Amino acid sequence: MPRPAKGARLGGGPHHEPLLLAGLCRELFQYGRITTTEAKARRMRPLAEKLITKAKVGDIHNRRIVRKTITDVSVLHTLFTEIAPRYENRPGGYTRITKIGPRRGDNAPMAVIELVEALTVAQTAVGEAEGATKRAAKDAEVAEAAAVETTEVETA
Question: Which Gene3D superfamilies has this protein been placed in (predicted)?
Answer without folding.
Answer: Ribosomal protein L17
